[in-house]
Structure formats: structure tokens, C-alpha cells
């Protein structure tokens, strides 16, 4: 059905590496794979195997869970997008870890895969959305800093020249043309 690879960390692993919870859910216990160093795994490549046909309205969704936390969506693959390299931004472990009895088995990090309706998923690539958000924030910060250097204060209001956006945008475009690496500085 599917396989995964942890770049620079593993060989391709098929579905047999995962524990099947039910017909549509699988879980990989990271303790068996890397022990407590789960957060050193930063990305996973998931792919559909050639002989598996996923219905066009379905996706294989990937989730991660730190010890004691809830599952967090990372991305998905579909027939139209049969493989993906997903960033694993592990959530912070929950404070519930301290409440467990001493003789209870240790909680571990997990990667979950489930078959879901494509329409119910927020985005196929969460990491790409976060990069776009960070880029927009950096451009906005650049605009704010530029405007701040020209503004005055009138009580609780900032006063800026009417052509400030035009001036900023022209300066932004000129700098991007002069220095091809300028825009790369905005991407994280």
C-alpha cells in the first residue's frame, strides 16, 4: 500500500513496519526505530507503492505525536501526488508525562498514517504552507520597518506619507533586481 523513508536515516520501509490499528490506520512507534531521539528525525518521505490504487477522493494522511501529546497533521499523498517529503515539526511533549505511575510503560513518539477523505484535509503539505506564512511575515516586517523610518506620531496614531507603499515597493523591486540573493534572505 505505502512505504516510508527517513532521508539519511533509513532504507525504504513498507507497511509491515507499522502496527495496523484497523483497516484504515497504521502507527509507527518511534521508540522501536530511534528510541528517545525521535525529535532528531526532521522529515519523512511517504510514497504509494506501484500496485496500490487509492480512490481519487481519498488520501493517505500523515500525523505525528510526541510522548503524551495529541496527533498533529503533517501532510498527505494522493493518486495525483503519489509521494511527498514532509517536514516533521514534533509537538512539545505533554506535561502528563510526570503524572504517570512509575511502573507504567513509557510513552513514545509515533507516526500515524490513515486513509481519509481528501476534502477533509486542510492542506497536502503543511510545511510548504508554513514557509509561505514565514515569507509573508518577513515581507510584512520589512514593510513595517521601512514605514517606521518615515512616520510621525499624532497621539495614538502613526502618520505616514501617502506614497509610502509605492516608495517601499519600488525600493523592494530595485533591490531584488540588483541582488538575486535578496529574496532568498526572506525564506527560512
Care to describe what's here?
- With 188 residues, the protein is α+β, with helices and mostly antiparallel strands.
- It has two domains: 2-122, no CATH class; 128-186, no CATH class.
- It has helices spanning 30-34, 126-148, 164-178, and strands at residues 2-5, 13-14, 19-22, 25-29, 43-48, 58-65, 72-77, 83-87, 110-117, 152-154, 157-159.
- The strands form three sheets. A five-stranded antiparallel β-sheet has the order 3-4-9-6-7. Strands 2-1-5-8 form a four-stranded antiparallel β-sheet, with no helix packed on it. A two-stranded antiparallel sheet has the order 10-11.
- The longest helix has 23 residues, at 126-148.
